[in-house]
Amino acid sequence: GKGGYDHYMLKEIHEQPAALRQTLRGRADPATGDIDLEDFPAGTFADVDRVQFVACGTSYHAGLVGAQYLSAGGVPAQTFLASEYATGQPPVDDNTLVVGVTQSGETADTLSALRQANTSGATTLAVTNVVGSTAARECDDALFIRAGPEIGVAATKTFSSQVVSLALLAERLVRDVTGTRTDDTRERLGALADLPGHVQQILDYSSARRVAEEYRDSDAYFFIGRGSVRPVALEGALKFKEISYEHAEGFAAGELKHGPLALVTSETPVFAVFTGRNDEKTLGNVKEAEARGAPVVAVASDGQDAVHQYADEVLTIPDTHPDVAGVLANVQLQLVSYHAADLLERAIDKPRNLAKSVTVE
Ligand code: M6R
């Protein structure tokens, strides 16, 4: 059942601290920097020379984060929409690792991209929540995200657990491929270990419902972020449109002025995500929106004074490593979407026209 919550989505948002503890359990030790990933001991990926992620929807956004982790660590990586993978025909050889990121393990587009990769000679790996799923069975190997069952059509806790799983996988890959650890391994692993507690803090004090109420009659909702939180901006918008049926779009912060700014008015709130890295630039983009009269809702930690000065509202997140801050920011945006949809009395757990797992291409 819904365990006292009005919707599975809200229950699953609140399950994130527990889900993340499960995802992390026994896999990373911040004190030593050691990584222990079941089927993937040190050296597993020594022959890999590039990584391609294939995924859809929310899982695609997690894949975008995964590729950033790898690229930053010196491993060439790209993320493809699974439905575009066949058309894109990216080069694949024996040393290519193709990672399907799929909560259900049953998404037809993702399965089809993985099958194509397999036929082309790549090694395939499923990052999935469902043991025994088609992706887990068909791929050469599987990494389970251990988020627990997700009933709501909107993917929430599985996104968080996917990103954390991909962070751990990236640590393993970077070490195997480059022979060195990521520069700040211990800080990173420490930030991952802190995530369950940090998410709990957000759940305890979030003002997302008040923000959703304040902007409930807007024309459209825009989400911006750069670098590690560009995928979070995209995900914020996907979740918002999926369950509220309101128009929402996510953009790279720097792209706002290259077109979308024409849509910005006093009736289009802009949600801007900050991580503590490259914030001045995003702040510049916020000012472009503000100059057109748009209300600005920042998602940022308390210490970011300049952000607080410019934003109309701030959804605060605990201070953490910039690469991990996106998971926290995303929880605030999940709550905004949930409350916006709840105020509109939408069918939150079963939005119109959508299915939990999409088994047609
Ligand atoms: O099961 P999968 O992770 O492969 O599903 C992919 C998408 O269909 C899924 O993430 C979808 O975008 C979510 N319903 C969004 O909340």
From TrEMBL:
Subcellular location, record wording: Cytoplasm
Organism in which the protein naturally occurs: Halorussus aquaticus
Alphabetized UniProt keyword annotations: Aminotransferase, Cytoplasm, Glutamine amidotransferase, Repeat, Transferase
Subunit field text: Homodimer.
Domain annotation SIS: ranges: 41-180, 211-351
Protein known as: Glutamine--fructose-6-phosphate aminotransferase [isomerizing]
GO molecular function, one term: glutamine-fructose-6-phosphate transaminase (isomerizing) activity
Enzyme Commission designation: 2.6.1.16
Domain of life: Archaea
Summary of the function given for this chain in its UniProt record: Catalyzes the first step in hexosamine metabolism, converting fructose-6P into glucosamine-6P using glutamine as a nitrogen source.
Lineage of producing organism: Archaea, Methanobacteriati, Methanobacteriota, Stenosarchaea group, Halobacteria
Example of a GO cellular component annotation carried by this entry: cytoplasm
Catalytic activity: D-fructose 6-phosphate + L-glutamine = D-glucosamine 6-phosphate + L-glutamate
Signal sequence annotation: none
Coarse class of the protein's main subcellular location: cytoplasm
GO biological process: carbohydrate metabolic process
Active site: 356
EC category name: transferase
